């Protein structure tokens, strides 16, 4: 029983320069895109891991952005106000409690998402290195 091939039969001929381009696309543009360019179906899983990881990280990032904008609005109101800072309702303990609550709610999922994104990039790196090795074996030495 033969295992299923890890690349498409219609994949372009892999050269050293194409393998290097796939490496740069995988690492600098989009994990999985270089793998797909080389005809490796595993690129779809790398892309899926990247998207899933980003979706897991998005709620924390959006909450953090919302809180930063709220803080900016609060500082802008403080600057426009003639009321002393003590009377404006700015309480650092409340702010700390809000941040802790957000991290408790979304922090674990966000860390898992970041780990998944890093794993997708790592997998894309490993695939790219295997492409370079395969291309080096296929081409005659110069």
Structural features:
4 helices; elongated; mainly alpha; 142 residues
Provide the gyration radius in Å. 24 Å
What distance lies between the first and last C-alpha atoms, to the nearest angstrom? 38 Å
Beta-strand portion reads: under 5%
Low-confidence stretches: none
Indicate how many domains the architecture comprises: 1
β-strand number: 0
What gross morphology would you assign? elongated
Task: Name the helicity range.
Answer: over 70%
Q: Could you state the oligomeric state of the chains shown?
A: single chain
Q: What is the residue-averaged pLDDT?
A: 81
Number of helices: 4
For the biggest sheet, the summary is: none
Structure classification = mainly alpha
Order of helices and strands: HHHH
Provide a descriptive summary of the structure in words:
The chain has 142 residues and is an all-alpha fold. It has one domain (16-82, 90-138). It contains four helices and no strands. Helix 1 packs antiparallel against helix 4 and helix 3 (42-80) packs antiparallel against helix 4 (92-138). The two termini are 38 Å apart.
Condensed summary:
The chain has about 140 residues and is an all-alpha fold. The chain is about 75% helix and about 0% strand.
Secondary-structure map:
Layout: H1 16-29, H2 33-37, H3 42-80, H4 92-138
């Amino acid at each position: 029983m033969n295992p299923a091939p890890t690349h498409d039969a219609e994949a372009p001929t892999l050269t050293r320069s194409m393998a290097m381009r796939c490496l740069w696309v995988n690492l600098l543009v989009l994990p999985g895109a270089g793998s797909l360019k080389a005809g490796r179906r595993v690129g779809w899983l790398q892309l899926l891991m990247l998207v899933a990881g980003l979706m897991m990280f998005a709620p924390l990032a959006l909450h953090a952005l919302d809180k930063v904008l709220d803080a900016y609005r609060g500082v802008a109101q403080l600057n426009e106000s003639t009321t002393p800072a003590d009377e404006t309702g700015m309480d650092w303990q409340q702010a700390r409690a809000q941040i802790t609550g957000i991290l408790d709610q979304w922090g674990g999922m966000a860390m898992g998402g970041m780990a998944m994104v890093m794993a997708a990039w790592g997998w894309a790196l490993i695939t790219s290195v295997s492409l370079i090795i395969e291309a080096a074996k296929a081409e005659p030495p110069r």
